[in-house]
Amino acid sequence: MRVVAFVSEMPGSGKTVLAGHVAAQAEAEGVGLVVVLDGDPARGLSDWWAERAAPRPILGAWDRTCTAEGFKRLAKGGVQLVVIDTPSGHTAMAEQAIALADLVVLPTRPNPRDLEVAGAVVDMVEALGTPFVFLINHTQGEDDFPTAAVIALAQHGTVCPVILPQRSDFNRCRAGGRTVMELDPDSPSSEDMARLWDYLSDHMVKVAPAAKAKRRSAPGDRRRFPRHRYDQIATYSVGDMVFPCHIADISAGGVSILTAEPPVEGTEVTLHVPYLGAFKAESVYVAADRVGLRFLIDEQTQGDLVKQLSALLHGDRRRPEAESPEPGEPESLPRTATG
Description:
Number of domains: 2
Largest sheet: 8 strands, parallel
CATH class of the largest domain: Alpha Beta
Radius of gyration: 22 Å
């Protein structure tokens, strides 16, 4: 059994439509029994499926049975493919789907914001050891080849060679729970779906064995800590130079920041986190002004950080003015690069 998950930080990237279409295309090509799992609270995939006249692919619920053991039971029951639609953003459900997948598809529109946040998802996927591909979706026309987007994404991973233009028939197929293949089997959109499934199917065959071996042999590389939104102004320093940044999300393993002066990949920095302290970290990806940092801290410090995060996220973030700095937090920060 193969598992493919559609994941995106940005709403409107097309992952729900693509998940339904890929599942239907796989069924049409004789893959066997296909199950689609709707993990998005918006329930767009469920609404689409409810209007379908065809009973296949089968719709399943994302619930507590969606585990490695649960997926083994699906395989024993004859399921050949599971397609997962995940919610937008970094959530526990998305991380669980990524950990279970043989391949993660990252639908990305060719605009600066989508390209910027794609790196944050890559950080999460790579931490879990799952292969992924970028899928450029919603280009403006048949002749509008998104060269800049392909170049930008290719620096971070594989880009699917099937580029999907924005076409009206995808909007039309929402009514009645149809697919573009069912509207017109000979349409350009139908041909694109056939090419897309062919590529994803072949790619999964190539990468799935290595990915599963990596996950079995290196469990420490998988994300052990939940990621949380942490909307805070902060700074990071390289040597005696300090740069302003904005923390987007954080876990005990790392953090995503936004900064106008990003460090190059592989740079060791010190991140000064309000209410938590100063932490050594390494830049593991840079996408526009978004940077993923992996903490370079020992297990004791990591355990303390878990407790601190829990206290902050379930209590009051404000620290009493008379309270002393957290261990490792400097009394005063070095001078900033801007003076």
